[in-house]
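Handout for the seminar on molecular recognition.
Each group receives one record of this type.
Step one: identify the two inputs.
Step two: read the structure output and locate the region that could contact fe (iii) ion.
Step three: write two sentences on what you found, then compare them with the reference statements printed after the record.
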Amino acid sequence: VYILAIESSCDDTSAAVLCNDEVLSNVIATQKIHEEYGGVIPELASRAHQQHIVPVVHQALAKANIDKKQLSAIAFTRGPGLLGSLLVGTSFAKSLSLALGVPLIEVNHMEAHILSHYIREEGVKKPEFPFLAMTISGGHTQIVLVKDYFQMEVLGETLDDAVGEAFDKSAKLLGLTYPGGPLIDRFGQKGNPKAFPFPKPRVDGLNFSFSGLKTSILYFVQRETAKNPDFVQENLNDICASIQFTITEILMDKLKKAVKQTKIKQIAIGGGVSANSGIRKALARAEEVMGWTTFIPQFEYCTDNAAMIGIVGYYKFLQEDFTDPSVTALARYKLGTS
Ligand code: ATP
Ligand code: FE
């Protein structure tokens, strides 16, 4: 089975070709334009998708050495994401499936972040059902009970900002460029994580909240720079380490609670924030101390990519779960409703 997959939910245009559960190519065009604005501008994102989509698909096919006539189906991200961005990928996928006369397969982006763990990789163990997935990205923060490929239950999620947003907005307050998450990680590795204690939010159950953290960092920076205008520059490593430490603790506290509740000790994480070194270290420690088994996909499959759309496409293809060509993109698309 050869699947061409297309992802255009946010600011990256991506196309991948899979042969069954194996990735033959995974091409990603990132949009540099948003750095200037300190965040993704939806209008500019859709335009850039328009420019990138055809070359990116061509590249993916060429790299995989597959002719479009060999394709078995076209999989695409239906949502959630920015509507204008989703429309580009959706329309392209619909047209191509019609032109080639092959089935169309819609994919939920968040489901794909979770199922990216099933992309075949030499010598890498896969999580077994049931397991817990924690998706930590720029737009989402969820703990999901995964009972089967397409049986997922959201146990908890953020009530306000996503964890990636918490990183990026904190970074902006420190004058760092967008996206600031990786910079906080880089500077934080050289700092003391206990230098500045920030409060952790009190949220019931397995839900998260990150907007309070951002506010307390804002007040903290304002207070300290009033006393010393160079405070941030002089203490950047320690501030970053402290922010990263607090965010990691918030995530780990909820994960521990979820493990206690479900008695499931297999934890798979995904989403761009899973690149974070502090979070990775905390998970490695939890393996040793609490006997968890943790799974982290390759970085290429953590951030937005079409390969993860393709793996979902493959499993849906096996079930002949095809999509009608009258399908429309969904900016909001709840997990477990596809
Ligand atoms: P969604 O999947 O919810 O639609 P998204 O696709 O925009 O969101 P991703 O591409 O998965 O999000 O992740 C991007 C986020 O990951 C950004 O907020 C970025 O700052 C963050 N990020 C990437 N690397 C790191 C890191 N090392 N430490 C902290 N955050 C990081
Ligand atoms: Fe994503």
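Reference statements: DSSP finds ten helices and ten strands in the chain. The chain has a mean pLDDT of 95.
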